[in-house]
Specification:
With 107 residues, this protein is an alpha+beta fold. It is built from 3 helices and 4 strands; from the N terminus they run E-H-H-E-E-E-H. Strands 1-4-3-2 form a 4-stranded mixed sheet. Strand 3 and strand 4 form a beta hairpin. The termini are far apart.
Amino acid sequence: MGKYEVRIAEEALRDMTEIYRYIAVDLLAPENAIRQYNRLADAILSLELFPERYTLFETEPEHSHGMRKMVVDNYLICYIVDSEIVTVTDVLFGASNIHTRLLERHP
């Protein structure tokens, strides 16, 4: 199997920007913010190889849509694999109610 094309949805980019802003501005830790942002970005880019290595959601409708999840530190990267394309849909704080947040975002 070759490399997959990795696409990041606007919502996921906004999530990453908000994570960066929260750590840099609210927590007053800009160095930590850039390191966290880079860890998330590197993890997302790693999905170009074997994106199926991470599990499908067990909840519905995420499971039926083929949504997968990857944990990076305290965050959950949500994505869908379709043919040779990986689309990252969301990057969410893991301690939040992920299922509810996804339903709100993707009714």
